[in-house]
């Protein structure tokens, strides 16, 4: 169960809002300060025992019900505080026009609002007090954040005949371990992969290999404790290496005994299942191990790339899924007595379908095979095939408990973020930028200090989930990451999300009244109406239609959202054939994320959309018939990310120039656009600027060079655009990523693009047939890591300064015939300029140095 960990997260969020200095004065004015202080005191006492409740709820149905009741109250409290904060935002904004203010809060509305808020906070406080009164009967203890779960110990013994597959991987790891490292006393090899993929099994095979046995006179197998207790590990090493117990010895004696046991010996130490990210503990253990003979090795298994890097692994082996043929053989081994499968061809065929659902995870295959062992009723096999794996009875070796451990080890603030990912369809590639914006809309990102942007914290969240193998990176550069979730990991997200999230595919799908986040996926346009069950909800926070939208019923759905879903925060209706939006959309004061991309019948946006005080993200890409943006766009004072397509010739400076918090501006597919607005420098916080498929755009405004916060700049397929070479400007001082593609008239990069020498890390120049030379200032870009040049046939050589770009890690050259010849390894005239670069790709041929 995940309810308690979610509630810990929600409780922390509420306490943060209650403690806001900016709102304390507001509470005092409205006469609710005492009530809110009482609520805060009660909530603290409940919050402190929620982690213990998370551990105990699986064994106590009454506790689970108590937590569900608590969740309802906390969500209501969060919605209440969000409503209060919305009022506060409107009150404090200096840029809201007076007529907008009175439209939102006339004197009569203010009186009604105050009356309603005072009664609501009293009701919430009384409900919370009632729940707190029942807390004592569960005997819950206070557990500090970060307490880790236990996992069964592993061991080294295995019969090779019991293992199916992994022979090639075993050979590769053995070869690495057998290599002579010269004078290196100790080297580390890491095996990284998701839970259940077979890391421990692989290392067991290696550990028992005859060549390893002969090469390493001393072999030791340890299963790491969750906190990586160095003294405990040292005691175990002494015991296994010398058959001497030192349980009663002090720390100094244990360390001395360990070094005596290892001194001068070539050893192989397996440390299985490492979770601790505390580098100081590893360095402490490593210093004790350095007394061994040259060629000693440590093999580590972990789910985290970060841990592999932290332990300074000389080789990190990423263990992939088991091939289907091996998975099927493993399944047959566990589901049938030896050779009996040939007597049950129908079951064997069903079994192959079941194996496909396991997506190459051996532990899942073994679990399902064991469950079906000796069962010959075809109906039982069909039930398993057609069921989700997370519904299976869970024993100690099941795949979901193995994956659940990855979830349980997450910091509390990541658990709800991970569960929210269940709104995505299985197998979908997800852009980190979009996910971070969705997390932010739900209030799931917390900045440890005011100077750190929520988007930067979100990037850290995504990278941490990637490092823990819960996200599989598809493509990454700097803070832009595209990832997927393994299907079983997605099942885990669905499981831990419980009733918070659901997917509706047709009118017969059932959802509970407690659902907060709804995905409409593959919803049939032949249905006569939107799902009836959805019409009965009033607590929805997310409506998400990620692929083909909801067709011609989108307008009906929006009307339902406005009338029922008062606290809706995310509305995503991409490609839904919307033609108009109702004026009443301006009443959805809690909306933070809107995506109407691909609705190419929308011609106008209602003016009232500019009355959304909390709106952070507005996506209108490929709304190809959108005539113009509302003049009141500047009233969206919380807007941080804007993606748009419009038929306007010039973007409205009065509206866009007033968006003081805007961080992302993406202008795409604007076929009539001839100019941006001159006051671009007003966007002082703009960090990402994308201009694409604007065929009539001829020049950029000079104000663009004064975007002091700009980090990522992309220009794509603007056939008439020329980049002015302004000589008297300081340039983009924080630029990190520069992409220029499809500019036929571009001859050279202007000076103002170079940025600070320590900032620019990525340059891509593509499909620029007139481009003739890299700029002279390139040699001063001392932080450059990645340079890509594609489709620039007139670029015939590289500057001599290339050899001075010592940080450059990857060079990619394609469709540049003359340049490619000059860069051929050892033979080309420019080879000596680039020989220091680690990765070189010439027309899709990789040259590794």
From TrEMBL:
Q: Would you say which domain of life the source belongs to? A: Eukaryota
Give UniProt keywords alphabetically: ATP-binding, Leucine-rich repeat, Nucleotide-binding, Plant defense, Repeat
Domain Disease resistance R13L4/SHOC-2-like LRR, chain residue ranges per copy: 562-759
- Enumerate the spans annotated as Disease resistance protein winged helix domain: 423-493
Q: Name one GO biological process term.
A: defense response
Describe the location of the Disease resistance N-terminal domain by residue ranges: 12-98
Asked if the Swiss-Prot or TrEMBL record annotates the protein with the keyword Acyltransferase, the reply is no
NB-ARC domain: residues covered? 169-338
* Gene Ontology molecular function, alphabetical: ADP binding; ATP binding
Family membership noted in the UniProt record: Belongs to the disease resistance NB-LRR family.
Q: Specify the protein name.
A: Disease resistance protein RGA3
Source organism: Capsicum annuum
């Amino acid at each position: 169960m995940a309810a308690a960990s979610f509630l810990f997260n929600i409780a922390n969020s509420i306490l943060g809002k209650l403690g806001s200095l900016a709102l304390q004065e507001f509470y005092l004015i409205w006469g609710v300060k005492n009530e809110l202080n009482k609520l805060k005191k009660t909530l603290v006492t409940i919050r402190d025992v929620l982690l213990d409740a998370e551990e105990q709820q699986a064994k106590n149905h009454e506790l689970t019900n108590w937590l569900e009741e608590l969740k309802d109250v906390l969500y209501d409290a969060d919605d209440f505080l969000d409503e209060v904060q919305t009022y506060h935002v409107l009150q404090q904004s200096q840029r809201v026009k007076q007529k907008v203010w009175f439209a939102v809060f006339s004197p009569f509305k203010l009186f009604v609002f105050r009356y309603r808020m005072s009664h609501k906070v009293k009701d919430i406080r009384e409900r919370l007090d009632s729940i707190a009164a029942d807390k004592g009967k569960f005997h819950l203890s206070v557990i500090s954040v970060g307490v880790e779960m236990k996992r069964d110990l592993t061991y080294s013994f295995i019969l090779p005949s019991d293992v199916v597959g992994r022979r090639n991987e075993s050979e590769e790891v053995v070869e690495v371990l057998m290599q002579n490292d010269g004078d290196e006393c100790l080297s580390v090899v890491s095996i990284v992969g998701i839970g259940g993929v077979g890391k421990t099994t692989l290392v067991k095979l290696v550990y028992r290999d005859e060549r390893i046995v002969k090469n390493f006179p001393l072999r030791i197998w340890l299963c790491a404790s969750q906190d990586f207790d160095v003294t405990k590990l040292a005691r175990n090493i002494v015991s296994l290496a010398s058959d001497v117990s030192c349980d009663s010895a002090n720390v100094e004696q244990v360390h001395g005994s360990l070094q005596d046991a290892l001194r001068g010996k070539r050893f192989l130490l397996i440390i299985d299942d490492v979770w601790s990210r505390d580098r100081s503990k590893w360095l402490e253990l490593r210093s004790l191990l350095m007394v061994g003979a040259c060629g000693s090795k440590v093999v580590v298994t972990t789910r985290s790339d970060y841990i592999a890097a932290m332990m300074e692994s000389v080789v990190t082996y990423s263990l992939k899924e088991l091939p289907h043929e091996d998975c099927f053989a493993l399944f047959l081994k566990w589901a049938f007595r030896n050779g009996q499968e040939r007597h049950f061809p129908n079951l064997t065929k069903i079994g192959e379908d079941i194996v496909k659902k396991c997506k190459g995870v051996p532990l899942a295959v073994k679990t399902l095979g064991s469950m079906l062992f000796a069962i010959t009723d075809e109906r039982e096999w069909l039930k398993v095939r057609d069921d989700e794996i997370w519904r299976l009875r869970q024993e100690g070796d099941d795949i979901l408990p193995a994956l659940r451990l990855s979830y349980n080890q997450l910091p509390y603030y990541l658990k709800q973020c991970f569960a929210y990912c269940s709104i995505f369809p299985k197998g979908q590639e997800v852009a980190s930028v979009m996910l971070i914006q969705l997390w932010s809309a739900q209030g799931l990102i917390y900045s440890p200090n005011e100077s750190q942007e929520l988007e930067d914290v979100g990037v850290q969240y995504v990278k941490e989930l990637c490092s823990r193998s819960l996200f599989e990176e598809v493509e990454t550069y700097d803070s832009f990451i595209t990832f997927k979730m393994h299907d079983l990991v997605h099942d885990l997200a669905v499981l831990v999300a419980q009733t918070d999230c659901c997917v509706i595919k047709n009118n017969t799908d059932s959802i509970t009244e407690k659902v907060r986040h709804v995905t409409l996926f593959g919803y049939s346009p032949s249905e006569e109406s939107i799902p009836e069950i959805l019409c009965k909800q009033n607590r929805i926070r997310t409506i998400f239609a990620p692929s083909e939208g909801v067709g011609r019923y989108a307008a009906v759905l929006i009307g339902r959202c406005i009338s029922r879903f008062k606290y809706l925060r995310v509305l995503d209706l991409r490609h839904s054939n919307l033609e108009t939006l109702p004026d009443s959309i301006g009443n959805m004061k809690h909306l933070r994320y809107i995506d109407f991309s691909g609705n190419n019948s929308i011609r106008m946006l209602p003016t009232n959309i500019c009355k959304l005080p909390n709106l952070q993200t507005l996506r209108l890409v490929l709304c190809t018939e959108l005539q113009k943006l509302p003049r009141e766009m500047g009233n969206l004072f919380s807007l941080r990310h804007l993606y748009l397509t419009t038929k306007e010739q010039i973007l409205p400076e009065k509206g866009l120039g007033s968006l003081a918090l805007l961080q992302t501006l993406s202008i795409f597919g604007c076929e009539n656009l001839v100019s941006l607005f001159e006051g671009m420098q007003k966007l002082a916080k703009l960090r990402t600027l994308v201009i694409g498929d604007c065929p009539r755009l001829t020049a950029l405004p000079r104000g663009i060079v004064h975007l002091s916060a700009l980090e990522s700049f992309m220009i794509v397929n603007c056939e008439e655009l020329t980049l002015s070479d302004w000589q008297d400007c300081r340039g983009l001082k924080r630029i990190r990523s520069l992409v220029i593609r499809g500019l036929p008239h571009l001859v050279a990069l202007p000076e103002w693009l170079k940025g600070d020498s320590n900032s620019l890390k990525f340059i891509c120049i593509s499909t620029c047939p007139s481009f003739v030379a890299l700029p002279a200032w390139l040699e001063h870009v001392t932080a450059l890591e990645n340079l890509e040049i594609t489709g620039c046939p007139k670029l015939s050589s590289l500057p001599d300064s290339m050899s001075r770009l010592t940080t450059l890690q990857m060079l990619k050259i394609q469709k540049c015939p003359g340049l490619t010849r000059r860069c051929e390894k050892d033979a080309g005239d420019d080879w000596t300029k680039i020989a220091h670069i680690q990765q070189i790709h010439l027309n899709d041929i990789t040259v590794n140095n």
